[in-house]
Amino acid sequence: MSAGAAALVGVLAGTALLLGSGPGRVRLPRPAGARRSSTGAHRAAGVAVLSSVAAGLVLFLDGTTLALAVIVLLCSVAAALTWRRGREQVRCRQRRAKVVEVSEALVGELRAGQPVIGALDRCCGVWPPFATVAAAARLGADVPAAMRRAAELPGAEGLGRLASAWQVSQRTGCPLAGVVDQVAVSARAELAAARLVRAELASAQATARLVALLPLGTLAMSAGIGGDPWGFLLGHPVGLSCLAAGTALVFAGLWWIDRIAASVTRP
């Protein structure tokens, strides 16, 4: 089998592993048994496909091509996981902004004289997952508890503060609009600070990605002056070792930079 075919097999296997690891987005809480069974079925299917592909690689590829296919497989999985992590971070930021908008909308509705249930219903138009909180209010259930359950979604942690403000209003009798307004103001300030920090970190992250691409430029220049770097990297055991170590260091560096950025911008 050629190196191109081995690379294709590796990409397909990485995709199977990615799909078998479960959905990439976070959903609202469901019954525990249903969630585990669904996730377990996806994971079992992914592992079965990956095992079949791995068996085919071992049986039909020679040592050098097998090593190349394994490297491509691991790189494709690492790239897919990095992409999913970036998408999840974007969703968290969007959800965080929506929670702030919900808090501000709730303050506006309450100050306009709307009843609590009507105000919560109108907030569902700003952020549809807030419907669980509105449903709890309509049924006479524990609204702060519903807010804390919704706050389990990544990026919706601000609903925990809103739940605490709701409880303070219930226990002390102070106007709900006032305490919710304080929560909204502080959440908006934190959101602005996080955006400023992300803007400052954007240059460092862009530099890290540029540095990760520099080895490709070096290989292209080496090939341009008459060398054969690709033949060494793809066809020699020492070259394959260098390729594996280099790609591992590249993905480790990107992961490290993303972890630093996430820890700084996390509320």
UniProtKB/TrEMBL annotation:
<keyword id="KW-0812">Transmembrane</keyword>
<feature type="transmembrane region" description="Helical">
    <location>
        <begin position="6"/>
        <end position="28"/>
    </location>
</feature>
<feature type="transmembrane region" description="Helical">
    <location>
        <begin position="66"/>
        <end position="83"/>
    </location>
</feature>
<keyword id="KW-1133">Transmembrane helix</keyword>
<feature type="transmembrane region" description="Helical">
    <location>
        <begin position="206"/>
        <end position="226"/>
    </location>
</feature>
<feature type="transmembrane region" description="Helical">
    <location>
        <begin position="40"/>
        <end position="60"/>
    </location>
</feature>
<protein>
    <submittedName>
        <fullName>Type II secretion system F family protein</fullName>
    </submittedName>
</protein>
<keyword id="KW-0472">Membrane</keyword>
<feature type="transmembrane region" description="Helical">
    <location>
        <begin position="238"/>
        <end position="257"/>
    </location>
</feature>
